[in-house]
Amino acid sequence: MARTDKSLARAEKTLPNFYRDSVALMQLSSRIEGFPGITRATAVMATQANIDLLKEAGFTASDLSPRPNDLLIVIEGHDDAAVADALSQTEAALQAAAAPAAGTAAGPAAIPAASLAMALEDKPAANFALISTPGEYAAAEAEKALRLGLNVMVFSANVAPGDEIALKRMARERQLLMMGPDCGTAIVNGVPLGFANALQRGPVGLVGSAGTGLQEVTSLLDRAGIGVSQVLGCGARDLSDDVQGLSMRQGLAALAGDDPTRVIVLVAKHPSIAVARRIGREAAQLGKPVVLAFLGLDLAGIAGGNIFVAGTLDDAARTAAALALGKTPPTPAGRDPALAALARENAGRLSERQAYIRALYSGGTFCYEAQTLLAQEVAPIWSNTPIAAASTLPDVWTSREHTLIDLGDEFFTRGRPHPMIDLRLRLERLRQEFADPQTAVILLDVVLGYGAHADPATEIASTIADARAARQPTDHDVIVVASVCGTQADPQGLSRQEEALRQAGVLLAPSNAAAARLAARIIHAHSNRAGHT
Amino acid sequence: MSHAAPPWPDPDVRRTVIRFRHGSTRRAWDTAWSHLASSGQPNGLGALLPNGGTDGRSLQTRLLLPRALIDLPRLVVSTRRLALPEAVSAAVPLIGAGPGLTPSWDDLLIGFMAGLRTATSGKPERPGFLTRLGAAIQAAGNATTDVSRRVIDRTVAGYGPPWIDDVLAAIAAGNVTRTRRATREALHIGHTSGTDTMLGALLGCAVWQAGPQLDATLAALSCRDPNMASDASGGRHGTH
């Protein structure tokens, strides 16, 4: 059956126990096929069936043994040199992505550690384990790490609540940190873990159960010239009645005893009121100022002494910055005349039919914060993660009236990368909202930092340009409002990202809260112009 | 410490029953099928669909399609007839074939078994057929990747991928809105896995049903061989 063309050169290579995302493999194969002198290229799992298909197509004549967990690369071309070059480039691209321990002139490649114990033997000074596995395995790995005396960050979600509590108790008994499960952001001793921004070191220590909330406060502090000592995550469920803030309380105690930390900020969304009060009481016993940014709770009653309460993330950053500089904290940000003027100026671009805000968030905390703010300004609000006055969106794929979507919610991320990494789903929704004649304002967050998309602003700007081009000449424009969460030192560069958005006509607000307020102001200004109520 | 919950713990999944004699169920299936058919996937088995895209079609997909065009209708037709040896001979040789860590053909079989499970009522031979087909597929698990084998094992045990079970449950309930939503979600899974598994699941749950759905589906799939549709209702079946 084989129809191998003997005039063509071929090279084959199997990489043991190796796999890359199938999209990446296809893109790579396609790129290699475009090389001069190359006719065909593929990278597939080395199963018998795939080998048979390659043989049937005359793509390989060799007697390959099936090894289903190995990656098989086959390249065909007009001459040996072109094929060998393409193969080496393919391998280099794949290995660069894998970044394995390489052998050196001094010795052979290290054997990759297959367990935490092996890794610890290899690096006995290590005291920290970051666990990112499917949720069903994460608890067992975290337990092993704690038993080995390691501090733990569990990036994985979907760990059973009972396991979370048991792990956190075990960590407390052993005086180890247990961050997570579902902890996406931390900076420990200056080392960013998970999604985190490039920040200056400084006097503010933070503990939070809200990942993008921590990123927003720390980035705003950085822009104000204030650095951080430690940023500790505790997992989304930590401040529930069941878990009782075990990790936040432990982190709070650790920061209280940490000399470089002069100001502490605690960040959470929808905590249990009882747990929030308990943490407030414990914080009041410390000798350092503590800012509580517990979104969605009115804790004004417990402010006083060393306790400061912030209603929004940007208020928390302003308060912490002032305290770090030894100044009196400012009053909370309210109605900003500059934003009101900007809103009036832009509302004139809208037609009478355009009446609604459509918010497409990648950060869950941002979606939550915006809901708390917009609930006081517009109605009705729908969301896939509704709080307070918002209602559950019946079909998450279709917006109605004012809609705020958290695209990082598990519903959208099952089997897909998080929208901070992969913008496709959000861009598709952006186009959809642009095409809706009732959309007045599209509200976006753009999150920068390690782990995030390499150039989100350019992707968003390009989609906005396409969406505008697709509208009819008689259609009115849609106003896009965004805030960028990040710093100048982030790999994407704050000013570069902001400039790309500005060039696309996006109205930029200095924080997520300000962006939500600006969107509401535009709706109000438009209603007033149109004589709506 | 308690053990982690199983990944697909919903016990109701095994009790989903699809019956096309309900008009709402047929409409829900049609909804899922039309979403699948318009997905435009150029790679994996989605490329078999009438609107399968061609831009960016990988070599591995190009190699798989001619074999799948033969073995997929064989699998469906023999399953409809409860002809176990032929169904096994259609299903097993391509295990491990196609792009992805769960190769496309495996995804199709996983969806197919999950779909069949919802449709075994009506004839006493059907549950036994499914059990034996599942056992044959499971026995060939060494031919594929560890990850794929694990998903096959769980599906044979009655727990399909949760996003496929969501679609099947929505069809069983005859809820078009829920079906549309679940289908959209399923088609976003992985690169080709969502489309491949959905194709298997929609064929699987329709294969033993009365009505024109299966014939129309096979006609659409075997558009290069229009006789294939009549095979489904008892004529000759496709062979190599």
Let me know the average pLDDT of chain B. Answer: 81
According to CATH, the homologous superfamily of the largest domain in chain A is Succinyl-CoA synthetase domains
- The helicity of chain A comes to 25-40%
Radius of gyration of chain A: 26 Å
Instruction: Detail the poorly predicted runs of chain B.
Output: 1-13, 223-240
Indicate the low-confidence ranges of chain A by residue numbers.
100-107
Assign a percent range to the helix content of chain B: 55-70%
In DSSP terms, counting alpha (H) and pi (I) runs of 4 or more, how many helices of chain B? 11
Silhouette of chain B:
globular
Outline type of chain A: globular
Whole-number count of domains of chain A: 3
Characterization of the model:
The complex is a heterodimer of chains A (533) and B (240). Chain A is an alpha/beta fold and 533 residues long. Chain A is built from 17 helices and 20 strands. In chain A, the strands form five sheets. Chain A has a seven-stranded parallel beta sheet with strand order 16-15-17-14-18-19-20, with helices on both faces. Chain A has a five-stranded parallel beta sheet with strand order 10-9-11-12-13, with helices on both faces. Chain A starts with 8 loop residues before the first strand and ends with a helix. In chain B, helix 4 packs parallel to helix 9. Chain B is mainly alpha-helical and 240 residues long.
Quickly describe the structure.
The complex is a heterodimer of chains A (533) and B (240). Chain A has helices at 22-33, 48-56, 80-98, 116-122, 135-147, 161-173, 211-223, 246-256, 273-284, 313-324, 337-347, 364-374, 410-413, 424-435, 456-470, 494-503, 512-530; strands spanning 9-15, 38-46, 67-77, 128-131, 151-154, 178-179, 185-188, 191-194, 201-208, 228-233, 263-269, 290-295, 307-309, 356-361, 381-383, 391-392, 402-406, 439-447, 479-485, 507-509.
